[in-house]
Amino acid sequence: MDKTDNPTEVQVEEQAEGQTKESKMALSRRGFLGAGAVATAAGAIPMTAAMFTASAKAQAKEAASSPAVHPGELDEYYGFWSGGQSGEVRILGIPSMRELMRIPVFNVDSATGWGITNESKRIRGDGDHFLTGDSHHPHMSMQDGHYDGKYVFINDKANSRVARIRCDVMKTDKIITIPNVQAVHGLRVQKVPYTKYVICNGEFEIPLNNDGKASLEDVSTYRSIFSVVDAEKMEVAFQVVVDGNLDNTDADYDGKYFASTCYNSEMGMTLGEMVSSERDHVVVFNLARCEAAVKAGKFKNYNGNNVPVLDGRKGSKLTRYIPVPKSPHGINTSPGGEYFAINGKLSPTVSLIAIDKLDDLFADKIKPRETIVAEPELGLGPLHTAFDNKGNAYTTLFLDSQIAKWNVKDAVAAYKGEKVNYMRQKLDVHYQPGHNHTTMGETRDADGKWLVVLCKFSKDRFLPVGPLRPENDQLIDISGDEMKLVHDGPAFAEPHDCIMVHRSKIKTKKIWDRDDAMFAETVAMAKRDGVTLESDNKVIRDGNKVRVYMTSVAPMYGLSEFKVTEGNEVTVVVTNLDTIEDVTHGFCMTNHGVQMEIGPQATSSMTFIANKPGVQWYYCNWFCHALHMEMRGRMLVKAK
Length: 640
Ligand code: K7E
Ligand code: CUA
Known about the structure:
Elements: H1 9-15, H2 21-38, H3 49-60, E1 77-82, E2 89-94, E3 98-103, H4 118-124, E4 139-143, E5 146-156, E6 161-166, E7 171-177, E8 182-189, E9 197-204, E10 206-207, E11 222-230, E12 235-242, E13 249-251, E14 257-262, H5 271-274, E15 279-286, H6 287-295, E16 309-311, E17 319-325, E18 331-333, E19 339-343, E20 350-354, H7 358-362, E21 372-374, E22 382-387, E23 392-397, E24 402-407, H8 408-415, E25 423-428, E26 433-438, E27 450-455, E28 471-477, E29 484-491, E30 498-502, H9 520-528, E31 538-542, E32 545-553, E33 556-557, E34 561-565, E35 569-576, E36 585-589, E37 594-598, E38 603-609, E39 614-619, E40 632-638
Parallel strand pairs: 12-16, 32-35, 34-40
Antiparallel strand pairs: 1-2, 1-30, 2-3, 4-5, 5-6, 6-7, 8-9, 9-11, 10-11, 11-12, 13-14, 14-15, 15-17, 18-19, 19-20, 20-21, 22-23, 23-24, 24-25, 26-27, 27-28, 28-29, 31-32, 32-33, 35-38, 36-37, 36-39, 39-40
Helix pairs in contact: 1-2
This protein binds sulfanyl-(tricuprio-$l^{4}-sulfanyl)copper and dinuclear copper ion.
């Protein structure tokens, strides 16, 4: 690298001579990850003096505008945040960045009883025995490219699952395990004409029939598989076997194509093998052809299940493979529907695929690389790109710890050879950003107001809290010509991705409907027991099983005592008769490791073995009333 033209991190420090000691330290800390990683990147790109000035200027303007939402005021946007290894989804208010709620999904939650109540166990289904999850990509269902406020879908990479969250109550209502694949990573929804399908990538390569008979040496039958899930039924509609593996995915705005990035076209099993070739690819799926192939029965089944699996490997009519620089990561469709932006990761570039050229590609009229209409060089480690409503794109640079703001039209012109500067600004973020997202930016309604950048490291941005640090979710004002960093938001493990949805798109219930599907099976059980949940307080004895039905009205349970025998399987069903907004009750049985939440007008139940002889108090553990402490009762467990 030419030292005079391309300031390295060291030189940046020298240039910072006049600055305070603290900001110099900050600059040197920035280099910590960047420097070593440069060597593995495909090639460093020159950072011009103009770019440096722009970035320094932007830094000086930090905190110039404010995301203040004053006490009593409401946020303009709902943010849906993945909780990463915590397995949950969080709701934030934007722009305040206040955390409003947590939605347990793939995790077990002590507060709400998710994974403990019978209702949640039914929803958790065949994956109920898993205590863990790794959620990455939350995306809301759409109508004609606009959010419809109905569902948020999210993947669990760890256990190959997909979950659906109902936005009227903000609870998970369905979780399925995707067969034939391992590590469901990229997940998106069909945008147009509506979210008929949720699409998701099986990242890890496994034998087609993964029955324990394959070897670690012969990897010839190893495949990655693309899954297309019926969003309403929450069943896999069909799958497509591809060449290479699958990382991230997105859909077009025409209802015709899905596309996924592949970082392991080598089908390597070790890191060295995975990064050995200079190019990987994007695979594009032709939805109509896939549906026709399923109809025509041109599929196979694997692993003893009935899911139709199509062959979309190279040469197939169902797919096309577009070579891009090695190890691409994120894929983001521009809100006008013109481009798939492919983020280079090991290449300093983003490749733009013109979606209107895909018809010709599938008709074999053009070559795959002819669909690429821009490949701007942005900086080191581009991972994800977001869009505003003014034709600009915002790309996270993981290694540079920056956001590159660039103009899409100018990047296309530059690729044609015109002398234009597509780079608008580089802004330092803190540090190592992964995903970023603009308000409404993955829909036709991109509004160019806010950009959130999910930084993987926070280092020195918060009070030190031991070796494990929070992430740093930064809020950037993008409404003006310059990006302005306005807020640092610490977050626990690990928001991979987020979306920001205008509040006008979401209508939530204040209290539960008594006929809600969430507890319909519990209502049916009560009916079989001859119990009217809204009025009865009864103990039903059924051999070794005891079903205890009680109501709750602040500050009392309908039953203040009941008796069981040691070893009984006890099911406690609580129906919250309160109709007042926000009066949630809890039910905790001491010494049995169980507790749950019961929202206003909801029924919740849980089952446990009464294995602790003696008097066991149960109590309300959600604060509900001045006499909340007194809201309790006794279970006598008679010794056997
Ligand atoms: Cu969307 Cu983190 Cu799963 Cu990129 S991934 S960073
Ligand atoms: Cu009921 Cu606290």
